[in-house]
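Record now logged underneath.
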Amino acid sequence: MLFDYFNNTTFGQPLFLVLFAIIPVLIYWKIVKGKRQTAAIGISTTKGLSKTRSWKNTFQNVPFIFRLLAISCIIIALARPQVKFDEEQSEGEGVDIILCIDVSGSMTAQDFTPNRMEAAKKVAENFVNDRPNDRIGIVIFSGESFTQCPLTTDHHVLISQIEQIRNGLLEDGTAIGSGLATSVDRLRSSKAKSKVVILLTDGVNNGGLIDPATAKEIAKTFKIKVYTIGVGTDGYAPTPVSTPMGIVMQNEKVAIDEKLLKNIADQTGGKYFRATDNKSLQDIYTSIDHLEKSKVEITTFHRFTEKFYPFVFAAMALLLLEFILRFTIFRKFP
């Protein structure tokens, strides 16, 4: 219980704890004084007095023990035990970011570990964890687009929504224009000075109701910066394909419209990246994280709660108890 009381406790005046060196000195003085005491009445022998020892003799040092405890409490009180509370106040400008992720069937290709989609989800989670002061949202797209999670600072909810992303949630295809347009729509009413879309895809636009060029112009109108990421190795990648015989692995050609992705990034003030494996994909998100830094100042306030009062009261009570015992039960008569 005493340990729990001192848990997370510091001392405002720790030098006073040196006074504990007095305790062994007082104990030594008490022992020496006891040995030097002489009898008030001279007798020839103490034989036969050994059986006359009473409970007062047994507990005669109790008042002295109370005095030592009182002195210990006074020393602790002088050292000022206190609990420190740190309070942080954030001020500044965060960045509003939409993670626009392709969930088409080709994202199950296994040229990444374990596949492109799971690798993209993993780096997205790391990216979210590294940006605690920003509002982040998620848009997924394949043949159509959908807002998986609107802009939020609740990153626990955000991580949960990223974990739920999987293939087959939407009609298959690669609607890059629709994905970008939905992302822009989520950011157009944002009051943040910096608005960013990170668009990740592994294919060529082949569907959707909005053309990528139109979505790009809308992004430029609302001053939204778009970083684009092309995912996939060079050449062919093993991809699970549904057949009448079940799911089989086939080598599918990697086709990424890099010209389109570069154009979208250049026209909106962003940058195009190509990821060919898990490490390069993680490095890309790290680079974007460095390019889009939040301007946040954190002020820390230190508050202290004093905990010396119980020791003052305990010392007073022990001294009072010692005084009462010394002049009542353990009173010595000349």
